């Protein structure tokens, strides 16, 4: 999605970070953080992953925890551990399922969030 921060996870440019400028089917055009590189690079979407750092506030936009919000406390490859705004528990979510957001979820929105928070480690391995 335009504006997302991404990191290259495959190929010669592995670990390069940048911002998404536009998306054309499976090709993502990013503006790399490194000034020495061209203004934009075209990469296959399979070579990229959304990038977050501890301290980012995020909202889950897909998956079983959709609607939950919290602060990123740890990044483990493609999985973020976030501190839930509602339950104050650490919950694992996939980086591709979240966006940066200043929104804070209220308890009325996700009253049974505590019941669906736990993802098994085997679920993490699917990505």
From TrEMBL:
Keywords, comma-separated and alphabetical: Elongation factor, Nucleus, Protein biosynthesis, Transcription
Domain KOW, chain residue ranges per copy: 2-26, 51-78
Subcellular location: Nucleus
MF terms in GO: mRNA binding; structural constituent of ribosome; translation elongation factor activity
GO biological process: one example: regulation of transcription by RNA polymerase II
SUPFAM superfamilies xref list: Translation proteins SH3-like domain (SSF50104)
Gene Ontology cellular component annotations, sorted alphabetically: DSIF complex; ribosome
Pfam families assigned to the protein according to its UniProt record, in alphabetical order: KOW (PF00467), KOW2_Spt5 (PF23284)
PANTHER family (UniProt xref): SUPPRESSOR OF TY 5, TRANSCRIPTION ELONGATION FACTOR SPT5
Record family assignment: Belongs to the SPT5 family.
This protein's name: Transcription elongation factor SPT5
Organism: Prunus yedoensis var. nudiflora
Lineage, highest ranks first: Eukaryota, Viridiplantae, Streptophyta, Embryophyta, Tracheophyta
């Amino acid at each position: 999605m335009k504006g997302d921060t991404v990191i290259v996870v495959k190929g010669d440019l592995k670990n390069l970070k940048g911002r998404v400028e536009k998306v054309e089917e499976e090709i993502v055009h990013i503006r790399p953080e490194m000034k020495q590189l061209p203004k934009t690079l075209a990469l296959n979407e399979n070579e990229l992953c959304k990038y977050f750092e501890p301290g980012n506030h995020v909202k889950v936009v897909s998956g079983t925890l959709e609607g939950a919000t919290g602060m990123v406390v740890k990044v483990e490859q493609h999985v973020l551990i976030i501190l839930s705004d509602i339950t104050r528990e650490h919950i694992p979510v996939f980086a591709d399922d979240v966006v940066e957001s200043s929104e804070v979820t209220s308890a009325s929105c996700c009253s049974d969030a505590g019941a669906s928070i736990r993802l098994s480690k085997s679920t993490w391995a699917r990505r």
